[in-house]
Amino acid sequence: MNLQPKPFCLLLITAFFISCHTSTSLQEDAGADSIVYSYDQISAERSTVNPNPVKTYRETIKSFETTDQFVVSLYETRETFHYLIKFEYKNLEVEDTLKVPNFGTQPSVEIVKGETRPSCIVGFFDKDKKFRESKLIYFENNHLKVHVLKRYGVATYQDTLRK
User: Fold this and answer.
1) What's the pLDDT score for residue 146?
2) DSSP secondary structure, 36-89, as one string
């Protein structure tokens, strides 16, 4: 009986180990026999919370009888990656939240004009400075409404490798 591994199997196993253990940000711990992946960390809580809106969107809606303001504002909360959304229109006031994924940088939020009047899209910028829409805020049938457009998440993993 021949128990020698076939060359193809050795090549496949070697390729598997090489592909599983590649990284661009490795940091060796002095005196340890493992490699730790290093990610930039942003504090989960803010040391100070700005009481003023971080961003505000305002749209004036004029009709034959009245002139109304559609106002949406984003406020910081104690949690770094959570924002409070306050919006008002026609004497209605509603609150909601915006959760921004942790990309390893300080979060950057934005409010842009929606396609219909009155409406806007609340979102954030990713680590490549690309706007990511999250929620649509609009008025319909005498109600202020929020529609989730997309959900986002970022996962970080910590692996250890043997030398």
Assistant:
1) 94
2) EE------SB-SS--SS-SEEEEEEEE-SS-EEEEEEEEEE-SBTTEEEEEEEE
